[in-house]
Amino acid sequence: VGSRLPRLGNTTNNTSVTPFSGNVTNKTGLLPVKRVFVTSLTFNGNLGGLSGGDIKCKQAEINASLSGNWVAWLSTFNWTSATSGIAINARDRIPNAGYFRLDGVKVADNKADLTDGTLDNPITVNEYTQFASPPQGVWTGTKFSGTASAVDCAMWTEGTNLKQGTSGVFSSTIANWTDAAPVLCNRAFRLYCFEL
Question: Is the dihedral of CA 49, 54, 60, 62 positive or negative?
Answer without folding.
Answer: negative
